[in-house]
Design goal:
- Chain B: Pfam families: RNase_PH.
- The complex is a heterodimer.
- Chain A is an alpha+beta fold.
- Chain A has 5 helices and 14 strands.
- In chain A, strands 1, 2, 3, 4, 5 and 6 form a 6-stranded mixed sheet that branches. Chain A has a 4-stranded antiparallel sheet with strand order 12-11-13-14, sandwiched between helices.
- In chain A, strand 8 and strand 9 form a beta hairpin.
- The longest helix of chain B is centred in the last third of the chain and has 33 residues.
- Chain B has a 5-stranded mixed sheet with strand order 1-2-3-5-4.
- In chain B, a hairpin with a 2-residue loop joins strand 6 and strand 7.
- In chain B, helix 1 crosses helix 2 and helix 2 packs parallel to helix 4.
- Chain B is built from 4 helices and 9 strands.
- The chains are: A alpha+beta, B alpha+beta.
- Chains A and B meet through helix 2, strand 14 and helix 5 of A and helix 1, strand 8, strand 9 and helix 4 of B.
Amino acid sequence: MAAVQVSEAEKVYIMHGVRDDLRLDGRGCEDYRHMEIETDVVSNTDGSAKISLGHTDVLVGIKAEIGKPKPMVPDEGYLEFFVDCSANATPEFEGRGGEELGMGLSNTLYKVFNNRHSVDLRSLCICPGESCWVLYVDVLLLQCDGNLFDAISIAIKAALFNTRIPKVHISEDEEGVKEIVLSDDPYDCMRLNVENVPCIVSLCKIGHRHVVDATLQEKACSVASLLISVTHKGMVTCVRKMGGGSLDPESIFEMTEAGKRVGKALHAPLMELLQKEESLGKKRQKVGFLG
Amino acid sequence: MPVDTKRIRGPEESQSPLLFLSPDKAPKASSRQGVRGNGDVRPVFARCGLISQAKGSAYLEAGNTKIICSVYGPKETERKDETDMKTGRLVCDFRLAPFSCLKRGAWIQGSEERDMSQTLLESLQPGVCLHRYPRSQIEVNVMVLENDGSILAHAVTCASMALADGGIEMYDVVLGCALRQNGNACLVDPSYSEEFGSWQEGYGENQGCVTVALLPNLNQVSGLNADGEMREDTLADAVRTCMDGCHKLYPAVQQALTRAVKKKAPPPEK
Protein backbone atom coordinates (compact mmCIF):
# COMPACT_ATOMS: atom_id res chain seq x y z
CA MET A 1 0.00 0.00 0.00
CA ALA A 2 1.28 3.48 -0.63
CA ALA A 3 2.61 4.33 2.78
CA VAL A 4 3.54 7.57 4.47
CA GLN A 5 6.33 7.92 6.96
CA VAL A 6 4.99 8.93 10.34
CA SER A 7 7.26 9.93 13.22
CA GLU A 8 6.88 8.56 16.73
CA ALA A 9 5.66 11.90 18.06
CA GLU A 10 2.97 12.06 15.38
CA LYS A 11 1.88 8.51 16.20
CA VAL A 12 1.46 9.42 19.87
CA TYR A 13 -0.47 12.53 18.90
CA ILE A 14 -2.84 10.53 16.69
CA MET A 15 -3.33 7.84 19.35
CA HIS A 16 -4.16 10.35 22.06
CA GLY A 17 -6.62 12.05 19.76
CA VAL A 18 -8.36 8.79 18.88
CA ARG A 19 -8.61 7.94 22.56
CA ASP A 20 -10.68 11.11 22.99
CA ASP A 21 -12.76 10.39 19.86
CA LEU A 22 -11.11 13.18 17.86
CA ARG A 23 -9.20 12.50 14.68
CA LEU A 24 -6.77 14.66 12.69
CA ASP A 25 -9.46 16.14 10.46
CA GLY A 26 -12.01 16.58 13.26
CA ARG A 27 -14.08 13.46 12.53
CA GLY A 28 -15.36 11.08 15.17
CA CYS A 29 -14.11 7.50 15.29
CA GLU A 30 -16.99 6.12 13.25
CA ASP A 31 -17.42 8.89 10.67
CA TYR A 32 -16.68 8.58 6.99
CA ARG A 33 -15.04 11.27 4.91
CA HIS A 34 -16.95 13.19 2.28
CA MET A 35 -18.04 10.72 -0.39
CA GLU A 36 -19.07 11.44 -3.98
CA ILE A 37 -20.54 8.76 -6.21
CA GLU A 38 -21.37 8.98 -9.87
CA THR A 39 -22.63 6.18 -12.10
CA ASP A 40 -22.61 5.68 -15.86
CA VAL A 41 -19.31 7.46 -16.43
CA VAL A 42 -17.83 5.17 -19.08
CA SER A 43 -20.07 4.64 -22.09
CA ASN A 44 -18.38 1.48 -23.40
CA THR A 45 -19.21 -0.57 -20.33
CA ASP A 46 -22.47 -2.23 -19.36
CA GLY A 47 -22.28 -0.53 -15.97
CA SER A 48 -19.81 1.78 -14.33
CA ALA A 49 -19.37 3.92 -11.26
CA LYS A 50 -16.82 6.30 -9.86
CA ILE A 51 -16.39 7.07 -6.21
CA SER A 52 -14.20 9.56 -4.44
CA LEU A 53 -13.87 9.13 -0.70
CA GLY A 54 -11.69 11.96 0.58
CA HIS A 55 -8.66 11.68 -1.67
CA THR A 56 -9.23 8.04 -2.65
CA ASP A 57 -10.60 7.70 -6.20
CA VAL A 58 -11.87 4.40 -7.55
CA LEU A 59 -13.42 3.66 -10.93
CA VAL A 60 -15.34 0.42 -11.56
CA GLY A 61 -16.39 -0.83 -14.98
CA ILE A 62 -18.57 -3.90 -15.52
CA LYS A 63 -18.77 -5.74 -18.78
CA ALA A 64 -21.16 -8.62 -19.36
CA GLU A 65 -20.01 -11.36 -21.71
CA ILE A 66 -21.45 -14.71 -22.64
CA GLY A 67 -19.44 -17.63 -21.34
CA LYS A 68 -19.66 -21.24 -20.29
CA PRO A 69 -20.98 -21.89 -16.76
CA LYS A 70 -18.84 -23.66 -14.20
CA PRO A 71 -19.27 -27.46 -14.36
CA MET A 72 -20.33 -27.88 -10.72
CA VAL A 73 -23.08 -25.25 -10.98
CA PRO A 74 -24.54 -25.39 -14.50
CA ASP A 75 -27.52 -23.14 -13.84
CA GLU A 76 -25.63 -20.08 -12.59
CA GLY A 77 -23.54 -17.32 -14.06
CA TYR A 78 -20.56 -15.86 -12.18
CA LEU A 79 -18.57 -12.72 -11.47
CA GLU A 80 -14.88 -12.21 -12.14
CA PHE A 81 -13.00 -9.51 -10.26
CA PHE A 82 -9.83 -7.77 -11.25
CA VAL A 83 -8.27 -4.86 -9.43
CA ASP A 84 -5.69 -2.75 -11.20
CA CYS A 85 -3.55 -0.35 -9.22
CA SER A 86 -2.83 2.37 -11.71
CA ALA A 87 0.57 4.07 -11.73
CA ASN A 88 -1.36 7.35 -11.46
CA ALA A 89 -1.93 6.63 -7.81
CA THR A 90 1.67 6.43 -6.67
CA PRO A 91 4.95 5.84 -8.54
CA GLU A 92 5.38 2.60 -6.55
CA PHE A 93 2.63 1.05 -8.66
CA GLU A 94 4.51 1.48 -11.89
CA GLY A 95 4.92 -1.70 -13.93
CA ARG A 96 4.30 -4.72 -11.72
CA GLY A 97 4.63 -2.88 -8.43
CA GLY A 98 0.93 -2.71 -7.74
CA GLU A 99 0.30 -6.34 -8.68
CA GLU A 100 0.59 -7.73 -5.17
CA LEU A 101 -1.81 -5.21 -3.75
CA GLY A 102 -4.18 -5.74 -6.68
CA MET A 103 -4.19 -9.51 -6.20
CA GLY A 104 -4.87 -9.13 -2.49
CA LEU A 105 -7.81 -6.84 -3.21
CA SER A 106 -9.26 -9.18 -5.88
CA ASN A 107 -8.95 -12.21 -3.61
CA THR A 108 -10.82 -10.43 -0.85
CA LEU A 109 -13.56 -9.44 -3.31
CA TYR A 110 -13.96 -13.08 -4.35
CA LYS A 111 -14.37 -14.01 -0.69
CA VAL A 112 -16.91 -11.25 -0.08
CA PHE A 113 -19.11 -12.36 -2.97
CA ASN A 114 -18.62 -16.07 -2.30
CA ASN A 115 -22.17 -16.79 -1.18
CA ARG A 116 -25.48 -17.42 -2.87
CA HIS A 117 -27.40 -14.36 -1.73
CA SER A 118 -25.29 -11.32 -2.68
CA VAL A 119 -25.97 -11.47 -6.37
CA ASP A 120 -28.69 -13.68 -7.82
CA LEU A 121 -26.45 -15.81 -10.01
CA ARG A 122 -29.35 -17.88 -11.33
CA SER A 123 -30.69 -14.82 -13.16
CA LEU A 124 -27.42 -14.74 -15.12
CA CYS A 125 -28.09 -18.12 -16.71
CA ILE A 126 -29.05 -18.20 -20.38
CA CYS A 127 -29.05 -21.92 -21.16
CA PRO A 128 -28.22 -24.32 -18.27
CA GLY A 129 -24.94 -26.10 -18.85
CA GLU A 130 -24.19 -24.28 -22.08
CA SER A 131 -24.10 -20.52 -21.77
CA CYS A 132 -24.42 -17.93 -19.07
CA TRP A 133 -23.59 -14.31 -18.43
CA VAL A 134 -20.16 -13.66 -16.95
CA LEU A 135 -19.82 -10.25 -15.33
CA TYR A 136 -16.27 -8.96 -15.48
CA VAL A 137 -15.90 -6.41 -12.69
CA ASP A 138 -12.77 -4.34 -13.30
CA VAL A 139 -11.66 -1.93 -10.63
CA LEU A 140 -9.19 0.84 -11.31
CA LEU A 141 -7.50 2.73 -8.49
CA LEU A 142 -6.87 6.28 -9.56
CA GLN A 143 -5.81 7.81 -6.26
CA CYS A 144 -4.85 6.12 -3.04
CA ASP A 145 -5.49 7.73 0.34
CA GLY A 146 -6.35 4.84 2.59
CA ASN A 147 -9.52 2.81 2.99
CA LEU A 148 -9.43 1.15 -0.41
CA PHE A 149 -11.72 -1.75 0.48
CA ASP A 150 -14.66 0.41 1.52
CA ALA A 151 -14.44 2.62 -1.55
CA ILE A 152 -14.15 -0.38 -3.89
CA SER A 153 -17.12 -2.19 -2.40
CA ILE A 154 -19.38 0.87 -2.56
CA ALA A 155 -18.30 1.53 -6.14
CA ILE A 156 -19.03 -2.09 -7.07
CA LYS A 157 -22.50 -1.85 -5.57
CA ALA A 158 -23.18 1.36 -7.51
CA ALA A 159 -21.82 -0.12 -10.73
CA LEU A 160 -23.90 -3.29 -10.36
CA PHE A 161 -26.97 -1.11 -9.83
CA ASN A 162 -26.11 0.73 -13.04
CA THR A 163 -25.46 -2.45 -15.06
CA ARG A 164 -27.74 -3.09 -17.97
CA ILE A 165 -27.46 -6.60 -19.39
CA PRO A 166 -29.02 -7.02 -22.84
CA LYS A 167 -31.96 -9.42 -23.00
CA VAL A 168 -31.28 -12.54 -25.04
CA HIS A 169 -33.33 -15.58 -25.84
CA ILE A 170 -32.51 -18.94 -27.29
CA SER A 171 -33.99 -19.84 -30.64
CA GLU A 172 -33.85 -23.34 -32.09
CA ASP A 173 -34.01 -23.81 -35.80
CA GLU A 174 -35.19 -26.94 -37.68
CA GLU A 175 -32.01 -28.96 -37.15
CA GLY A 176 -32.11 -28.36 -33.41
CA VAL A 177 -29.11 -26.04 -33.43
CA LYS A 178 -29.44 -23.50 -30.63
CA GLU A 179 -28.70 -19.90 -31.32
CA ILE A 180 -28.56 -16.90 -29.02
CA VAL A 181 -30.62 -14.04 -30.36
CA LEU A 182 -30.19 -10.50 -29.11
CA SER A 183 -33.31 -8.39 -28.86
CA ASP A 184 -33.63 -5.62 -31.50
CA ASP A 185 -34.33 -2.80 -29.10
CA PRO A 186 -30.96 -1.56 -27.63
CA TYR A 187 -32.68 -0.31 -24.47
CA ASP A 188 -34.31 -3.65 -23.70
CA CYS A 189 -32.18 -4.69 -20.76
CA MET A 190 -32.13 -6.75 -17.63
CA ARG A 191 -31.21 -5.03 -14.37
CA LEU A 192 -29.66 -6.69 -11.34
CA ASN A 193 -31.13 -6.67 -7.88
CA VAL A 194 -28.42 -5.15 -5.70
CA GLU A 195 -30.34 -5.16 -2.41
CA ASN A 196 -28.16 -7.90 -0.93
CA VAL A 197 -24.77 -6.74 -2.25
CA PRO A 198 -22.55 -6.25 0.81
CA CYS A 199 -20.41 -3.25 1.68
CA ILE A 200 -17.00 -3.62 3.26
CA VAL A 201 -16.14 -1.70 6.41
CA SER A 202 -12.51 -1.65 7.54
CA LEU A 203 -11.80 -0.85 11.14
CA CYS A 204 -8.24 -0.07 12.22
CA LYS A 205 -7.19 -0.64 15.79
CA ILE A 206 -5.35 2.38 17.14
CA GLY A 207 -4.42 2.09 20.80
CA HIS A 208 -7.50 0.72 22.53
CA ARG A 209 -10.06 2.13 20.15
CA HIS A 210 -10.94 1.47 16.55
CA VAL A 211 -11.48 3.92 13.69
CA VAL A 212 -13.54 3.62 10.55
CA ASP A 213 -12.25 5.01 7.24
CA ALA A 214 -8.62 5.43 8.24
CA THR A 215 -6.35 7.73 6.26
CA LEU A 216 -2.81 6.69 5.43
CA GLN A 217 -1.38 8.42 8.54
CA GLU A 218 -3.84 6.63 10.81
CA LYS A 219 -3.08 3.35 9.08
CA ALA A 220 0.62 3.84 9.85
CA CYS A 221 -0.25 4.07 13.57
CA SER A 222 -2.26 0.86 13.70
CA VAL A 223 -0.83 -2.63 13.79
CA ALA A 224 -3.96 -4.58 13.03
CA SER A 225 -7.24 -3.97 11.29
CA LEU A 226 -10.43 -5.92 10.81
CA LEU A 227 -12.27 -6.00 7.54
CA ILE A 228 -15.95 -6.88 7.75
CA SER A 229 -18.44 -7.01 4.91
CA VAL A 230 -22.07 -6.39 5.84
CA THR A 231 -25.33 -6.60 3.89
CA HIS A 232 -28.30 -4.31 4.42
CA LYS A 233 -29.96 -6.91 6.65
CA GLY A 234 -26.94 -7.07 8.94
CA MET A 235 -25.62 -10.42 7.70
CA VAL A 236 -21.85 -10.70 7.65
CA THR A 237 -20.34 -12.19 4.52
CA CYS A 238 -16.64 -11.93 5.12
CA VAL A 239 -14.38 -11.11 8.06
CA ARG A 240 -10.62 -10.86 7.74
CA LYS A 241 -7.97 -9.70 10.09
CA MET A 242 -5.23 -7.80 8.28
CA GLY A 243 -1.90 -6.46 9.40
CA GLY A 244 0.96 -7.90 11.38
CA GLY A 245 -0.37 -7.40 14.91
CA SER A 246 -2.70 -9.43 17.10
CA LEU A 247 -6.13 -8.54 18.45
CA ASP A 248 -7.76 -9.23 21.76
CA PRO A 249 -10.89 -11.41 21.41
CA GLU A 250 -12.98 -8.78 23.22
CA SER A 251 -11.87 -6.08 20.81
CA ILE A 252 -12.72 -8.38 17.89
CA PHE A 253 -16.29 -8.72 19.14
CA GLU A 254 -16.49 -4.98 19.74
CA MET A 255 -15.16 -4.23 16.28
CA THR A 256 -17.50 -6.67 14.52
CA GLU A 257 -20.46 -5.11 16.31
CA ALA A 258 -19.33 -1.58 15.37
CA GLY A 259 -18.61 -2.69 11.82
CA LYS A 260 -22.05 -4.22 11.49
CA ARG A 261 -23.66 -1.05 12.82
CA VAL A 262 -21.72 1.25 10.50
CA GLY A 263 -22.13 -1.06 7.50
CA LYS A 264 -25.86 -1.44 7.96
CA ALA A 265 -26.25 2.34 8.16
CA LEU A 266 -24.40 2.75 4.87
CA HIS A 267 -26.84 0.89 2.65
CA ALA A 268 -30.04 2.91 2.94
CA PRO A 269 -28.56 6.35 2.00
CA LEU A 270 -26.58 4.71 -0.81
CA MET A 271 -29.63 3.10 -2.42
CA GLU A 272 -31.57 6.33 -2.02
CA LEU A 273 -28.81 8.29 -3.74
CA LEU A 274 -28.52 5.79 -6.59
CA GLN A 275 -32.25 5.80 -7.21
CA LYS A 276 -32.39 9.59 -7.12
CA GLU A 277 -29.53 9.80 -9.61
CA GLU A 278 -31.28 7.39 -11.93
CA SER A 279 -34.57 9.21 -11.70
CA LEU A 280 -32.93 12.43 -12.92
CA GLY A 281 -32.32 10.66 -16.24
CA LYS A 282 -31.13 12.95 -19.02
CA LYS A 283 -31.32 16.08 -16.84
CA ARG A 284 -28.44 14.82 -14.69
CA GLN A 285 -25.32 16.99 -14.56
CA LYS A 286 -22.28 14.86 -15.34
CA VAL A 287 -19.27 15.74 -13.22
CA GLY A 288 -16.70 13.43 -14.78
CA PHE A 289 -13.22 12.64 -13.63
CA LEU A 290 -11.09 14.31 -10.98
CA GLY A 291 -13.33 17.34 -11.17
CA MET B 1 -1.12 -15.70 -16.23
CA PRO B 2 2.04 -17.85 -16.22
CA VAL B 3 1.59 -21.00 -18.29
CA ASP B 4 3.16 -24.34 -17.39
CA THR B 5 5.16 -25.32 -20.51
CA LYS B 6 7.03 -28.26 -19.01
CA ARG B 7 4.16 -30.67 -18.78
CA ILE B 8 1.90 -32.21 -21.42
CA ARG B 9 -1.63 -31.37 -20.40
CA GLY B 10 -4.72 -33.42 -21.12
CA PRO B 11 -7.45 -32.36 -23.55
CA GLU B 12 -9.02 -28.92 -22.97
CA GLU B 13 -12.54 -30.22 -22.52
CA SER B 14 -12.00 -32.86 -19.84
CA GLN B 15 -14.45 -33.10 -16.95
CA SER B 16 -14.02 -34.53 -13.51
CA PRO B 17 -15.80 -37.86 -12.89
CA LEU B 18 -17.04 -36.40 -9.59
CA LEU B 19 -19.68 -34.45 -11.49
CA PHE B 20 -21.41 -37.70 -12.30
CA LEU B 21 -21.54 -38.80 -8.66
CA SER B 22 -25.12 -39.63 -7.66
CA PRO B 23 -26.47 -37.10 -5.15
CA ASP B 24 -27.41 -39.50 -2.32
CA LYS B 25 -23.79 -40.65 -2.05
CA ALA B 26 -22.64 -37.15 -1.05
CA PRO B 27 -22.54 -37.00 2.77
CA LYS B 28 -24.68 -34.49 4.63
CA ALA B 29 -22.84 -31.84 6.56
CA SER B 30 -25.34 -31.19 9.34
CA SER B 31 -24.32 -33.63 12.03
CA ARG B 32 -21.65 -36.18 12.53
CA GLN B 33 -21.99 -39.90 12.91
CA GLY B 34 -19.49 -41.95 14.81
CA VAL B 35 -17.14 -41.16 17.62
CA ARG B 36 -16.45 -37.53 16.86
CA GLY B 37 -19.04 -35.05 18.07
CA ASN B 38 -19.86 -31.68 16.55
CA GLY B 39 -17.50 -29.82 18.86
CA ASP B 40 -14.54 -32.20 18.80
CA VAL B 41 -11.31 -31.65 16.92
CA ARG B 42 -9.74 -34.59 15.13
CA PRO B 43 -6.92 -36.36 17.01
CA VAL B 44 -3.63 -34.87 15.89
CA PHE B 45 -0.27 -36.54 15.23
CA ALA B 46 2.60 -34.06 15.34
CA ARG B 47 6.33 -34.56 15.07
CA CYS B 48 9.21 -32.07 14.76
CA GLY B 49 12.65 -32.34 13.26
CA LEU B 50 11.88 -34.51 10.24
CA ILE B 51 13.78 -32.56 7.59
CA SER B 52 17.47 -32.69 8.39
CA GLN B 53 18.48 -29.88 6.01
CA ALA B 54 16.08 -27.33 7.42
CA LYS B 55 16.67 -25.27 10.53
CA GLY B 56 13.33 -26.42 11.87
CA SER B 57 10.58 -28.62 10.53
CA ALA B 58 7.29 -30.15 11.57
CA TYR B 59 4.80 -32.69 10.26
CA LEU B 60 1.18 -32.67 11.28
CA GLU B 61 -1.59 -35.13 10.58
CA ALA B 62 -5.21 -34.50 11.53
CA GLY B 63 -7.59 -37.14 10.21
CA ASN B 64 -6.48 -37.42 6.58
CA THR B 65 -5.05 -33.91 6.34
CA LYS B 66 -1.26 -34.14 6.11
CA ILE B 67 0.87 -31.01 6.27
CA ILE B 68 4.61 -30.60 6.35
CA CYS B 69 6.44 -27.37 7.12
CA SER B 70 10.08 -26.34 7.05
CA VAL B 71 11.76 -23.20 8.35
CA TYR B 72 14.98 -21.72 6.99
CA GLY B 73 16.78 -18.81 8.53
CA PRO B 74 17.43 -16.31 9.85
CA LYS B 75 19.33 -15.33 6.75
CA GLU B 76 20.15 -12.11 4.98
CA THR B 77 17.19 -10.33 3.37
CA GLU B 78 16.97 -10.48 -0.40
CA ARG B 79 15.19 -7.19 -0.89
CA LYS B 80 17.29 -4.44 0.59
CA ASP B 81 15.16 -1.53 -0.60
CA GLU B 82 12.23 -2.07 1.75
CA THR B 83 14.05 -3.36 4.78
CA ASP B 84 13.22 -1.84 8.06
CA MET B 85 16.61 -1.93 9.73
CA LYS B 86 15.19 -2.60 13.18
CA THR B 87 13.09 -5.74 12.63
CA GLY B 88 13.34 -8.91 10.63
CA ARG B 89 10.97 -10.22 8.00
CA LEU B 90 8.93 -13.37 7.86
CA VAL B 91 8.35 -14.86 4.40
CA CYS B 92 5.63 -17.50 4.10
CA ASP B 93 4.98 -19.82 1.21
CA PHE B 94 1.89 -21.98 1.23
CA ARG B 95 1.57 -24.66 -1.41
CA LEU B 96 -0.85 -27.46 -2.17
CA ALA B 97 0.64 -30.53 -3.82
CA PRO B 98 -1.13 -31.28 -7.12
CA PHE B 99 -2.29 -34.67 -5.83
CA SER B 100 -3.57 -33.27 -2.53
CA CYS B 101 -7.13 -32.46 -3.55
CA LEU B 102 -9.81 -34.49 -5.32
CA LYS B 103 -9.26 -32.50 -8.50
CA ARG B 104 -5.66 -32.27 -9.73
CA GLY B 105 -4.20 -28.86 -9.06
CA ALA B 106 -1.42 -27.04 -10.88
CA TRP B 107 2.16 -26.71 -9.64
CA ILE B 108 2.12 -22.99 -10.24
CA GLN B 109 0.86 -21.11 -7.23
CA GLY B 110 -2.68 -19.94 -7.88
CA SER B 111 -4.32 -16.88 -6.38
CA GLU B 112 -5.99 -18.95 -3.61
CA GLU B 113 -2.63 -20.19 -2.45
CA ARG B 114 -1.14 -16.71 -2.52
CA ASP B 115 -4.05 -15.47 -0.46
CA MET B 116 -3.51 -18.27 2.07
CA SER B 117 0.23 -17.46 2.21
CA GLN B 118 -0.66 -13.88 3.09
CA THR B 119 -3.11 -15.01 5.79
CA LEU B 120 -0.51 -17.43 7.16
CA LEU B 121 2.02 -14.60 7.32
CA GLU B 122 -0.41 -12.32 9.14
CA SER B 123 -1.25 -15.09 11.61
CA LEU B 124 2.34 -16.00 12.43
CA GLN B 125 3.83 -12.51 12.59
CA PRO B 126 2.45 -11.51 16.03
CA GLY B 127 3.92 -14.67 17.54
CA VAL B 128 7.52 -14.28 16.36
CA CYS B 129 9.97 -11.92 18.07
CA LEU B 130 11.09 -10.27 14.83
CA HIS B 131 12.84 -7.42 16.61
CA ARG B 132 15.48 -9.96 17.69
CA TYR B 133 16.48 -10.60 14.07
CA PRO B 134 17.19 -7.19 12.52
CA ARG B 135 17.99 -7.09 8.80
CA SER B 136 17.22 -10.81 8.41
CA GLN B 137 14.47 -12.90 6.98
CA ILE B 138 12.99 -16.17 8.13
CA GLU B 139 11.44 -18.41 5.48
CA VAL B 140 8.51 -20.65 6.27
CA ASN B 141 7.49 -23.17 3.61
CA VAL B 142 4.28 -25.10 4.10
CA MET B 143 3.31 -27.98 1.81
CA VAL B 144 -0.06 -29.69 2.04
CA LEU B 145 0.33 -33.33 1.10
CA GLU B 146 -3.30 -34.29 1.47
CA ASN B 147 -6.26 -31.94 1.79
CA ASP B 148 -9.00 -33.29 4.02
CA GLY B 149 -10.35 -29.99 5.31
CA SER B 150 -9.17 -27.13 7.58
CA ILE B 151 -5.78 -26.87 5.86
CA LEU B 152 -5.15 -23.23 6.76
CA ALA B 153 -5.81 -23.82 10.46
CA HIS B 154 -3.53 -26.84 10.64
CA ALA B 155 -0.91 -25.12 8.52
CA VAL B 156 -0.69 -22.33 11.10
CA THR B 157 -0.16 -24.87 13.90
CA CYS B 158 2.39 -26.80 11.87
CA ALA B 159 4.31 -23.66 10.91
CA SER B 160 4.56 -22.41 14.47
CA MET B 161 5.80 -25.83 15.64
CA ALA B 162 8.45 -25.72 12.92
CA LEU B 163 9.48 -22.21 14.00
CA ALA B 164 9.79 -23.35 17.60
CA ASP B 165 11.73 -26.43 16.49
CA GLY B 166 14.09 -24.18 14.54
CA GLY B 167 14.93 -22.19 17.64
CA ILE B 168 13.31 -18.98 16.39
CA GLU B 169 12.35 -16.83 19.36
CA MET B 170 8.61 -16.56 19.79
CA TYR B 171 6.21 -14.97 22.26
CA ASP B 172 3.90 -17.95 22.09
CA VAL B 173 2.94 -20.87 19.84
CA VAL B 174 0.26 -19.96 17.29
CA LEU B 175 -2.55 -22.51 17.02
CA GLY B 176 -5.22 -22.64 14.36
CA CYS B 177 -8.72 -24.01 14.34
CA ALA B 178 -11.45 -24.07 11.72
CA LEU B 179 -15.21 -24.34 11.91
CA ARG B 180 -18.01 -24.88 9.42
CA GLN B 181 -21.35 -23.24 10.14
CA ASN B 182 -24.30 -24.99 8.54
CA GLY B 183 -27.62 -23.41 9.46
CA ASN B 184 -27.75 -23.71 13.23
CA ALA B 185 -25.23 -26.52 13.55
CA CYS B 186 -21.51 -25.87 13.71
CA LEU B 187 -18.85 -28.47 13.00
CA VAL B 188 -15.39 -27.90 14.46
CA ASP B 189 -12.38 -29.00 12.39
CA PRO B 190 -14.38 -30.00 9.32
CA SER B 191 -13.14 -32.62 6.87
CA TYR B 192 -13.15 -31.83 3.15
CA SER B 193 -16.61 -33.23 2.50
CA GLU B 194 -18.02 -31.36 5.50
CA GLU B 195 -16.38 -28.12 4.44
CA PHE B 196 -17.72 -28.07 0.93
CA GLY B 197 -20.86 -30.13 1.35
CA SER B 198 -23.13 -29.77 -1.62
CA TRP B 199 -23.77 -26.56 -3.54
CA GLN B 200 -27.50 -26.82 -2.87
CA GLU B 201 -26.86 -26.16 0.80
CA GLY B 202 -25.37 -22.83 -0.12
CA TYR B 203 -28.88 -21.51 -0.66
CA GLY B 204 -29.75 -22.02 2.98
CA GLU B 205 -29.33 -19.42 5.71
CA ASN B 206 -26.29 -19.00 7.90
CA GLN B 207 -23.67 -20.88 5.91
CA GLY B 208 -19.98 -20.24 6.29
CA CYS B 209 -16.49 -21.27 7.29
CA VAL B 210 -14.42 -19.60 10.00
CA THR B 211 -10.69 -20.04 10.66
CA VAL B 212 -9.09 -18.58 13.79
CA ALA B 213 -5.41 -18.41 14.75
CA LEU B 214 -4.80 -17.94 18.46
CA LEU B 215 -1.86 -17.37 20.82
CA PRO B 216 -3.17 -19.48 23.72
CA ASN B 217 -1.15 -18.19 26.66
CA LEU B 218 -1.52 -14.53 25.76
CA ASN B 219 -5.13 -15.03 24.62
CA GLN B 220 -4.63 -12.93 21.52
CA VAL B 221 -6.19 -13.65 18.16
CA SER B 222 -3.60 -13.31 15.44
CA GLY B 223 -5.64 -14.47 12.47
CA LEU B 224 -9.31 -14.46 11.56
CA ASN B 225 -10.86 -15.47 8.26
CA ALA B 226 -14.58 -15.87 7.82
CA ASP B 227 -16.37 -16.75 4.61
CA GLY B 228 -19.97 -17.32 3.56
CA GLU B 229 -22.93 -15.42 4.98
CA MET B 230 -23.68 -15.48 8.70
CA ARG B 231 -25.38 -13.44 11.36
CA GLU B 232 -23.08 -11.42 13.58
CA ASP B 233 -23.96 -13.30 16.79
CA THR B 234 -23.39 -16.64 15.05
CA LEU B 235 -19.99 -15.34 13.97
CA ALA B 236 -19.09 -14.33 17.53
CA ASP B 237 -20.09 -17.78 18.82
CA ALA B 238 -18.12 -19.43 16.04
CA VAL B 239 -14.98 -17.46 16.98
CA ARG B 240 -15.37 -18.47 20.64
CA THR B 241 -15.82 -22.13 19.66
CA CYS B 242 -12.71 -21.99 17.49
CA MET B 243 -10.72 -20.52 20.38
CA ASP B 244 -11.83 -23.47 22.55
CA GLY B 245 -10.79 -25.82 19.77
CA CYS B 246 -7.33 -24.22 19.76
CA HIS B 247 -6.97 -24.78 23.49
CA LYS B 248 -7.84 -28.45 22.99
CA LEU B 249 -4.98 -28.79 20.50
CA TYR B 250 -2.42 -27.21 22.81
CA PRO B 251 -1.39 -30.35 24.83
CA ALA B 252 -0.55 -32.32 21.69
CA VAL B 253 1.61 -29.49 20.37
CA GLN B 254 3.38 -29.09 23.71
CA GLN B 255 4.12 -32.80 23.83
CA ALA B 256 5.56 -32.85 20.31
CA LEU B 257 7.83 -29.88 21.06
CA THR B 258 9.17 -31.25 24.37
CA ARG B 259 9.86 -34.56 22.65
CA ALA B 260 11.80 -32.82 19.88
CA VAL B 261 13.83 -30.75 22.35
CA LYS B 262 14.68 -33.85 24.40
CA LYS B 263 15.86 -35.61 21.27
CA LYS B 264 18.08 -32.72 20.19
CA ALA B 265 19.58 -32.06 23.60
CA PRO B 266 19.12 -35.11 25.78
CA PRO B 267 19.14 -34.48 29.57
CA PRO B 268 22.57 -35.10 31.14
CA GLU B 269 23.33 -38.64 32.32
CA LYS B 270 23.54 -38.93 36.10
